[in-house]
Amino acid sequence: KLTRYVVIDEVSFRAVKGNGFVALLHELQPRFRILDRKKIAGLVYDLFLVEKAKIETSQVLYHVNVPMDVKTRWNATYKMLEVSLKYRRVFERMAEEWFPFINYFHEEDEKGKKRLGPPVSDDWDNAKAFVHFMKNFYDATLEISASKSPTSQLIYQSLIALQLEIERKRLDDSDPTLKKVSHAMKLKFDKYWGNWDNMNPSIFIANVLDPRNKLQMIKVSIKKFGGTATRIQEFVNKVKLELVNLWMEHKGLSHMLNIESQSMQLERDGGGGGTSSAGGGLYDKLFDDVDAQNEEEQLLEISNEVDKYLADEIENRSNQYFNLLEWWKGNENRYPIISITAKDIFAIPSSTVARKAVFSLGKRVLDPFRSCLSPKMIEALVCTSDWLRAEDFSFWKDPTDDDLEL
């Protein structure tokens, strides 16, 4: 019991030698012999080994937090099923041996209806299929809600991948339940994302500005959904035109900055001789021809830089060290204007929803006493403390914040 006290209340080993504690024990039991710190440390580790052996024997943790379902949050359903599947053997054994669990499903709910359950083999198979299907959406949600890397280039490919997955399940007759769900999901998906012509052009531009995709992702996706060669070319031309328009806009801004910089330099140098306006309309035709030639060369320049980027070799997708921002930084001289466009596009977040911390250690913080111990002893103290506290956890009541942090 003294060892359990040290572990559960997280006191130092020398606390058992404190004068007040010793006086209390002698008052309760005069013949009780106080152990020294080394003996307590040895007993703590022995207790750790005993509790660890119990877990290895049963292959079950005493304290299991299965997330509850929240009807308004689909990811809560996914997490609940994902965790529950790991403890399928536990639920099956509870349904056979633990009468409080069995009786729970014989009772009526608040609406007077008999509760469904406990889950049978078919239910577990359905849960497994749903988890496998919903994992794609869960992973995509986490990916596009990242906050420390560009995500705008991920929107289009995520939409296409999820749309293909929905379509695959919708046409799969092996699982009628999932097929029905997929059909409903497709109706909702098409409502918001079904018409590509109504999408924000930035979604496509961002994907094209990923040198691992360029226009190939768009061509392949349209083809996968039955698009004709004419439709593919029309849409590709539309996206390319949007990119050219952005290029022209950034080219104009860059040109204005250059002119402003040159004007400031002339003012500093005291220059700026004016151009004679003598002759009036004598030069009008000549100036018009010069302007036309300039516009022609600008169009040629646009074609050269945009087409050059799109025609250059696509980057290897298997390169796990590829960094999108570093790539554009390294190719800034090769594509001076498009790189400016890329900076603006990749600065757009794909989601404005704040991403909360997924993992939290809560109170699992080492105090100065424990930070001085060996890793082996820290493991023994922290793990054994959790296991011993878990004995007081009730399956039938909502866990407190402290319970959930264990």
From TrEMBL:
InterPro entries: hAT-like_transposase_RNase-H, HATC_C_dom, RNaseH-like_sf. One of its GO terms (molecular function) is protein dimerization activity. Residues 145-249 form the hAT-like transposase RNase-H fold domain. Residues 305-388 form the HAT C-terminal dimerisation domain. SUPFAM superfamilies: Ribonuclease H-like. This is HAT C-terminal dimerisation domain-containing protein. It comes from Dorcoceras hygrometricum.
